[in-house]
Design brief:
By secondary structure, the chain is an alpha/beta fold. The protein has 2 domains: 3-121, Rossmann fold (3-Layer(aba) Sandwich); 137-215, Response regulator (Rossmann fold). Helices cover 50% and strands 13% of the residues. It has 11 helices and 5 strands, in the order E-H-E-H-E-H-E-H-E-H-H-H-H-H-H-H. It has helices at residues 12-23, 38-44, 53-60, 84-93, 105-116, 124-133, 147-157, 162-169, 173-187, 192-202, 204-209, and strands spanning 3-8, 29-35, 48-52, 70-74, 95-99. Strand 1 (3-8), helix 1 (12-23) and strand 2 (29-35) form a beta-alpha-beta unit. Helix 7 packs across helix 10 and helix 8 (162-169) crosses helix 9 (173-187). The longest helix is centred in the last third of the chain and has 15 residues, at 173-187.
């Protein structure tokens, strides 16, 4: 399956550099586009958008942009601190990771691979901060998950990929994907990051049992 990535940065030249790094990733990426105009982003309909704070804000508030897209936020020192309430809005809109201003090219490539595989890239402390300050941001109603589905949720919260879950539970990868789709429907989320937030918000005990592996994306 081919994938399209769009980059939008406040400096077009910086965007060109980011584009070159992405093109070095050994992934099935069909096209990488560096856009400077927000309208171009809407027209390109990317699978993944790598962009700064202002761009993501404007995209999420643009009613003409109704395309589901994964978002990677580029942090820059020239913008104000991202508050947890706004970050939750971003997550609901498709945010799958945050690239700190000190991110190097190696970490960036890993974040791209994670985002395209459906994983997330977020510091443990940041997620803990969101949960601590915004309890109740997601529904507290516990979904009717089967024992196997609960096990998959716990493994996702511990940072396991689909292939790792497949090996751990001794089921096919297709079975993992189909069960995950059912979990998404039952919980009303659309990404691993949203599911992790939902899980810790509805079951604090589960959060306390999570290993560091679930949030080892320390940038």
């Amino acid at each position: 399956m081919s994938l399209k990535i769009v980059v939008h940065c406040c400096n077009y030249l910086f965007g060109e550099g980011i584009k070159l790094i992405i093109e070095e990733c050994e992934l099935n990426i069909d096209e990488v586009v560096n856009c400077f105009d927000r309208k171009e982003i809407i027209e390109e309909r990317p699978d993944l958008l790598v962009a700064d704070f202002n761009t993501i804000c404007s995209i999420l508030h643009d009613t003409s942009f109704n395309h589901n897209v994964r978002l990677l936020l580029l942090e820059t020192g020239c913008l104000p601190r991202l508050e947890n309430e706004r970050l939750l809005d971003f997550i609901r809109g498709g945010l799958v990771g945050i690239l700190a201003s000190m991110t190097d090219s190696s970490q960036f490539k890993k974040s791209i691979k994670n985002a395209l595989s459906g994983d997330f890239w977020l510091e443990r402390k940041k997620l803990q901060s969101i949960i601590a300050t915004k309890s109740g941001a997601f529904s507290n109603e516990k979904p009717d998950l089967t024992e196997k589905e609960l096990e998959i949720v716990k493994l996702i919260c511990n940072g396991f990929s689909n292939k790792e879950i497949m090996k751990k539970l001794k089921i096919s990868e297709q079975s993992v994907k189909s069960r995950l789709r059912r979990i998404y429907r039952k919980t009303g989320v659309s990404s691993r990051l949203q599911l992790a937030l939902f899980a810790v918000n509805t079951n604090q005990a589960m959060f306390n049992q999570m290993s560091n592996k679930s949030f080892d994306r320390e940038l």
